[in-house]
Amino acid sequence: MKKTLLVFGLAIAGLAANAQSEFKPKKGDVTTEFGLSGGVLNSSFNLNETGSLLRFRYFTQEKLAIRLGFNLSTDSETANAYGIDNSYSGNVKRKETSFLLNLGIEKHFTGTERLSTYVGGDILFGYGNQKASYLNSNNNLANPTYVANVSGEVNGPSTLGIGLRAVAGADYYFTKRVYLGVEGGFGFLYQSEGKTTITNNTASTSTTSTFNSAGNSLSVEPSVITGVRIGFIF
């Protein structure tokens, strides 16, 4: 009788373990996910904001994962400037590019059959740059004015950011190997702005002016990371 109960107990434990493994990742699994709202990098280049971020995790062990996230975005805009009676026209074109990379590690806990809680840390690196060109116009994108025989470029300022962040989060597997997650972090973020160079061309002259960096910033504060995330194991 005791032997029968022991075998029955082991069988139940085995079934429970198998059921849990159907939901949660195992050693060697890879997950991919993206935020349903918000992100980590926006056009103003603030690493502590939330936005779209594509992230992967590789589970070196059942409860230990390496994570890699990145974001690449571009934004462009054209504003037209018109002369008298709209007979002549010019334009100002602007383009912004930003890139974010984060590399980190997660330590997962037992949780429940469907819930996986974890803590971890990230190293953050980001870069952003903006560039504008103008033709028969001044270089004011917000209020362009027609100016005949004038053209030029505005390069910069670029922005470089680095940071370290501690994170804590939870993933809930609402079906087999598909989950919703939330995450928060606390860390420091340093951002430095580069120089701006303006080249202005007229019918008779060409001049180049360089303006020094506007400065840098350092922030230490909590943040919500990528809002609500959805991901799956493959």
Task: Write out the strand line-up for the largest beta sheet, numbering strands in chain order.
Answer: 1-2-3-4-5-7-8-11
User: Shape, please?
Assistant: elongated
Tell me the count of domains.
1
| End-to-end gap | 43 Å
Under the CATH scheme, the architecture is Beta Barrel
How many strand elements?
11
Helix content: under 10%
Q: Strand-and-helix sequence, N→C?
A: HEEEEEEEEEEE
* CA gyration radius, whole angstroms: 26 Å
Main sheet: strands, sense, barrel: 8 strands, antiparallel, barrel
**SS class:** mainly beta
Mean pLDDT equals 81
**Count of DSSP-assigned helices:** 1
Uncertain runs are 1-20, 38-51
CATH topology name: Porin
Q: Assign the CATH class.
A: Mainly Beta
Summarize the structure.
With 234 residues, the chain is mainly beta.
